[in-house]
């Protein structure tokens, strides 16, 4: 696609050649991070804040505020793009700076107080109007200021890429009139551009951070360096309920070169968003559950903490094991403790009456770990009861509150500087690692950067919960579902982290994330019962990209595949006939079928699967329609996913370039989960620790991706998570077609796939 | 601990560090060169890829005492036709998402193109499968390598 | 985890049964009793040859295996032209002159895969025996050179100093070298080519 804002290759080449010699491309960096070898962006020039989001220097340099951490989804580009379009500035010249501390930067996912945080695929949806308004209001103020200066009517002025121009061709740069504009009141309802006036919104626009990230100049949390900083490594009790009992060689370790201190770290109560949600065994009794060594350099700290002779007491969770977890799950699927979520028609009656023709499938999915490539880390400086934090932090407010609670100070005393995040997928919203860094800093009286090794990051992740399902149905004479009963069990995410998000009924509470994509889907089902069962566990869990739909949609779409297969009806036709009441669903389904030539019989050695999901944003904030077709082909004696077609209706695609990247990356992420991801437990803790036993997808396993983005009049819908869920059931369906084998667990067995 | 001299990005540096310290942490902590990243510490993710005597190497796998007279090139100092072609292609395709793995990806891609001027998809698989990307930017990595190969041809 | 077969006692006993100084050339007929003893010596040596430490880098296929469980090497590396890997991902990218336990990566100055002609995985001990004696497949070595290789080569010796949590090959390079010499001197008999 032709991309706007692409620096010509010749200029880029020259710039890259010079990069090593010059001070670097500081203008692309989130400038709060301080790496001693980089020049800081110039702070001498006078700047004017025109809105909460736009700062214009006297020189005309425009800095756009970014409130949403850049985790890879492209917020660093897409959100400033919205501002820049309405503001009407030269895109290649804008700078971006992370901003915090104002109400304007806060959003709410569901019933909760607004907070500054990224997640839930919400950034663009929640901020689109706000940013367009801010950009337009700023442009209006600048225009008015110029008009006043010229003594003419506003109507005789127009703007063009950072200049206000009047009817006779006089020009005033934004820089020149910024001081005056900053004093003018802002219009609350400025005139937004007409769709045909948009220069950037809806156009594939170059990412602002690609260059820095391609030459090693982007600063992530782990790269932070502040004056006086020490480095720390941590070793946590392997069991989640564990405690430090004794350190036997403390004196010896303290003598090691570079070692400053050994700090016992208190267990962090990480239900930061809602106190009291966590499983009680995780937070009670209050205890030290980790040891931390602070040293001059990280390697010294790491070796020292490994050499510590520490005795941990495992605590009440010591018997936790995967066998026990699975047994609990199966008991929940078979027992009678289920809470009904929805009940339409008379499913129980029909399934009883037609017991002989019930089709049933059972599924089990494990806990999985986020495994961002940058392991969690934070730099904290505790001084005189005030705390400053730097790092890869996905929720500014969750971090401030957790730190304030842990330290016993006001949230105002906590300031947070956000860097680029080296991946998060939900992990870095939970600030347990930040609080640990704060504890270390407090103990030594200096700033401390605490980095978890990959082992500590994996074993002390906040996991995506496990889930299992039992789904039963009988078909009508035409082969379509007459009655369906779906029960999902597992460790409830909301129950463990956000109890206020549970839906409460007379029969009990239920967690919508567990059935997200089942209870709220639009297949035509005349008789339908959905139930959930919570199996609480002393395992730290949290939201992970695509949350419960990664399980629920696997269950649901796999079951629909089962029914279509039993009815001997084509998988696309089957779904199509069930979705006739939902035209937007049909649109993506038809588009993917067309793009993949679904109705043409495939070659003998090509096996295909199709799946559909409408991803509904938290609180019903958006609806993004997705349909995928996967193609499998045999390689040696196994099957390889060669190609994935992905049709989406995302509403307005603010940046089709970054949207396509999210399609490609989201499918790859889902491939990892389908083929590789599993955390097992024994003796109360996680078994896996690094990429040899928790592998990630590698480039040779990545299929070709064909994105199909359907045009839409709807406003921007959420996107970061939406393409994940349909991938696995589509692959399972193709495997069913190829081998007759049903896949009811993830990760899919090695034996079936090429690794 | 002891004074060790190393040649890095065309300069000589002298650092006081334990000989068992991996090159990765010498680069990051002692020399402030944070472009080379830590992802796993056991040579499985490739985020720490540098060149030693112009050959790709996982900096987490080499104790600094084993470096000797060899010359280290990091992402901050890599130059040459292949580097310019790869980094230009990386930007033109907007390869990075979170970007954390990309220093390693770029270094491995440069190394591949130095050895094979026109790599096939299989050559790319074999050269880059040790560079993990959690964001799965693999589609664009592959395309950018092919772009860079074409640019080097012309 | 497999119990490492003990080499020392059995080897000592067997070595003692072979008459000292008895030189048997390859191909000479032997009494069935002497042949049986020769084969028994090779079976002892086979505990080294077929240990994971050796087999991991003697795959028949293109890709080495790793760990005691002999799983496919991660990342996916291949033999390449000279055993040192494909362009862009040579063995030397991660494996260096010595084991580096802090990174859990083994090392040796000669680190590379054995050529395909020396692929032993999936083959019977008898087949390996014939392979190992065949100059067309063993790197052009006559018996003297072969014995020197197994007793003195540094990369072979790595099998007994593998570092980390890797189970060393049974015995020592010295006992292995002595076993192989005794086997050669006893006629270099090979077990039958069938699964043991």
Features:
heterotrimer, B: alpha+beta, Ubiquitin-like (UB roll), DNA polymerase, domain 1, 5 helices, globular, C: 196 residues, mainly alpha, two-stranded antiparallel sheet, 4 strands
Task: Set out the fold topology.
The complex is a heterotrimer of chains A (755), B (154) and C (196).
Chain A: H1 9-19, E1 47-49, E2 54-57, E3 62-66, H2 75-87, E4 95-98, H3 123-150, E5 157-160, E6 163-166, E7 171-173, H4 174-182, H5 210-214, E8 230-236, E9 243-247, H6 250-254, E10 259-266, H7 280-283, E11 288-295, H8 298-307, E12 310-313, H9 322-334, E13 339-344, H10 347-353, E14 359-365, E15 377-383, E16 386-391, H11 396-407, E17 414-418, H12 432-444, E18 448-451, H13 454-459, E19 467-475, E20 481-490, H14 493-497, E21 503-505, E22 508-510, E23 527-534, H15 549-567, H16 571-578, H17 583-595, E24 607-616, E25 623-635, E26 638-649, H18 656-675, E27 681-682, E28 685-686, E29 704-709, H19 727-739
Parallel strand pairs in A: 3-4, 8-18, 16-17, 20-23, 26-29
Antiparallel strand pairs in A: 1-2, 2-3, 5-6, 6-7, 8-11, 9-12, 10-11, 13-23, 14-19, 15-16, 15-18, 19-20, 21-22, 24-25, 25-26, 27-28
Chain B: E1 2-8, E2 11-17, H1 23-30, E3 49-52, E4 55-58, E5 71-73, H2 81-92, H3 102-115, H4 121-128, H5 138-153
Parallel strand pairs in B: 1-5
Antiparallel strand pairs in B: 1-2, 3-4, 3-5
Helix pairs in contact in B: 2-3, 2-5, 3-4
Chain C: H1 8-17, H2 32-49, H3 52-55, E1 65-66, E2 71-72, E3 85-86, E4 89-90, H4 125-133, H5 143-152, H6 154-158, H7 173-185
Helix pairs in contact in C: 1-2, 2-7, 5-7
């Amino acid at each position: 696609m032709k991309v706007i804002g692409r620096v010509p290759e010749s200029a880029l080449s020259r710039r890259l050649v010079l990069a090593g010699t010059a001070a670097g491309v500081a203008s692309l960096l989130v400038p709060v991070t301080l790496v001693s070898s980089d020049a800081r962006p110039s702070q001498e020039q006078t700047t004017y804040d025109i809105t909460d989001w736009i700062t214009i220097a006297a020189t005309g340099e425009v800095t756009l505020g970014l409130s949403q951490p850049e985790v890879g989804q492209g917020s660093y580009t897409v959100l400033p793009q919205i501002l820049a379009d309405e503001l009407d500035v030269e895109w290649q010249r804008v700078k971006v700076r992370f901003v915090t501390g104002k109400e304007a930067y806060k959003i709410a996912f569901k019933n909760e107080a607004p907070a500054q945080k990224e997640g839930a695929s919400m950034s663009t949806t929640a901020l689109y109007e706000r940013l367009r308004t801010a950009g337009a209001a700023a442009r209006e103020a600048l225009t008015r200021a110029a008009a006043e200066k010229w003594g003419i009517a506003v109507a005789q002025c127009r703007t063009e890429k950072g200049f206000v121009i009047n009817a006779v061709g006089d020009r005033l740069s934004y820089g020149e009139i910024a001081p005056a504009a900053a004093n003018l009141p802002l219009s609350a309802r400025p005139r937004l551009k007409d769709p045909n006036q948009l220069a950037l919104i809806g156009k594939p626009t170059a990412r602002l951070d690609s260059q820095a990230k391609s030459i090693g100049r982007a600063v992530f949390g782990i790269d932070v360096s502040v004056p006086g900083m020490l480095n720390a490594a941590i070793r946590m009790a392997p069991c989640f309920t564990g405690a430090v009992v004794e350190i036997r060689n403390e004196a010896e370790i303290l003598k090691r070169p570079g070692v400053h201190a050994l700090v016992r770290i208190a267990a962090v109560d990480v239900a930061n968003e809602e106190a009291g949600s966590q499983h009680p065994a995780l937070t009670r009794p209050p205890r030290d559950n980790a040891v931390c060594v602070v040293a001059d350099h990280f390697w010294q700290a790491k070796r020292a903490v490994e050499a510590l002779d520490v005795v941990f007491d495992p605590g009440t969770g010591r018997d936790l094991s995967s066998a026990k977890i699975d047994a609990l799950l199966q008991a929940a699927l078979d027992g009678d403790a289920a809470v009904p979520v929805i009940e339409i028609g008379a499913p129980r009656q029909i399934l009883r009456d037609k017991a002989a023709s019930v089709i049933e499938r059972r599924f089990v999915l494990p806990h999985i770990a986020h495994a961002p490539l940058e392991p969690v880390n934070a730099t904290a400086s505790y001084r005189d009861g005030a705390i400053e934090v730097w790092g890869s932090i996905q929720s500014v407010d969750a971090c401030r509150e957790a730190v304030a609670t842990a330290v016993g100070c006001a949230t105002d005393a906590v300031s947070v500087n956000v860097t680029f995040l080296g991946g998060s997928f939900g992990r870095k919203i939970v600030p347990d690692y930040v609080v640990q860094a704060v504890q270390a800093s407090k103990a030594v009286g200096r700033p401390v950067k605490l980095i978890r090794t990959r082992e500590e990051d994996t074993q002390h992740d906040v996991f995506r919960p496990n889930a299992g399902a039992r789904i039963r149905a009988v078909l009508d004479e035409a082969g379509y579902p007459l009655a369906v009963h779906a029960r999902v069990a597992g460790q409830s995410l909301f129950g463990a982290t956000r109890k206020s998000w549970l839906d409460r009924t007379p029969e009990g509470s239920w967690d919508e994330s567990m059935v997200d994509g089942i209870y709220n889907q639009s297949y035509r089902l005349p008789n339908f019962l959905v139930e959930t069962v919570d199996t609480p566990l002393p395992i730290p869990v949290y939201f992970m990209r695509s949350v419960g739909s990664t399980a629920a949609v696997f269950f649901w779409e796999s079951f629909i595949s089962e029914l279509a297969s039993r009815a001997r009806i084509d998988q696309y036709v089957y779904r199509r006939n069930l979705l006739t009441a939902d035209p937007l669903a049909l649109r993506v389904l038809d588009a993917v079928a067309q793009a993949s030539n679904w109705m043409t019989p495939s070659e003998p050695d090509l096996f295909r699967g199709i799946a559909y999901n409408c991803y509904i944003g938290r609180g019903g904030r958006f609806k993004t329609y997705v349909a995928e077709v996967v193609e499998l082909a045999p390689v040696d004696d196994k099957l390889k996913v060669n190609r994935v077609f992905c049709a989406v209706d995302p509403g307005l695609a603010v940046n089709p370039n970054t949207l396509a990247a999210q399609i490609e990356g989201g499918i790859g992420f889902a491939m990892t989960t389908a083929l590789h991801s599993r955390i097992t437990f024994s003796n109360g803790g996680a078994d896996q620790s690094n990429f040899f036993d928790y592998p990630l997808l590698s480039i040779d396993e990545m299929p070709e991706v064909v994105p199909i983005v359907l045009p839409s009049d709807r406003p921007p819908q959420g996107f970061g998570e939406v393409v994940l869920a349909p991938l696995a059931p589509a692959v399972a369906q193709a495997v069913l077609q190829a081998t007759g084998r049903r896949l009811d667990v993830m990760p899919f067995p090695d034996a079936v796939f090429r690794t | 601990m002891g004074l060790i001299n190393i040649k890095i990005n065309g300069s000589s540096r002298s650092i006081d560090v334990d000989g068992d310290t991996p090159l990765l942490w010498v680069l990051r902590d002692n020399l402030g060169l944070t472009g080379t990243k830590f992802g796993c510490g056991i040579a499985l993710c490739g985020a720490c890829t540098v060149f030693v005597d112009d050959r790709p190497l996982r900096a987490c796998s080499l104790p600094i005492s084993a470096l000797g007279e060899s010359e280290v090139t990091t992402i901050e100092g890599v130059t040459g036709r292949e580097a310019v072609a790869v980094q230009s292609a990386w930007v033109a395709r907007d390869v990075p998402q979170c970007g954390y793995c990309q220093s390693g990806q770029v270094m491995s891609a440069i190394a591949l193109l130095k050895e094979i001027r026109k790599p096939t998809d299989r050559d790319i698989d074999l050269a880059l499968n040790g560079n993990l990307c959690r964001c799965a930017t693999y589609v664009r990595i592959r395309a950018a390598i092919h772009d860079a190969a074409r640019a080097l041809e012309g | 985890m497999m119990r490492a077969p003990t080499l020392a006692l059995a080897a000592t006993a067997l070595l003692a049964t072979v008459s000292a100084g008895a030189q048997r050339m390859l191909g000479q007929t032997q009494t069935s009793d002497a042949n049986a003893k020769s084969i028994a010596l090779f079976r002892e040596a086979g505990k080294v040859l077929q240990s994971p430490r050796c087999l991991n880098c003697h795959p028949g296929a293109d890709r080495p295996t790793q760990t005691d469980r002999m799983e496919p090497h991660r990342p996916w590396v291949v033999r390449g032209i000279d055993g040192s890997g494909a362009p862009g991902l040579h063995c030397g990218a991660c494996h260096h002159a010595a084991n580096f336990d802090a990174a859990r990566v083994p090392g040796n100055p000669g680190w590379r895969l054995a050529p395909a002609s020396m692929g032993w995985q999936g083959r019977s001990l008898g087949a390996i025996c014939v392979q190992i004696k065949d100059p067309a497949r063993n790197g052009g070595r006559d018996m003297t050179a072969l014995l020197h290789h197994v007793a003195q080569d540094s990369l072979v010796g790595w099998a007994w100093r593998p570092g980390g949590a890797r189970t060393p090959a049974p015995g020592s390079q010295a006992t292995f070298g002595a076993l192989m010499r005794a086997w050669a001197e006893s006629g270099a008999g090979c077990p039958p080519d069938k699964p043991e």
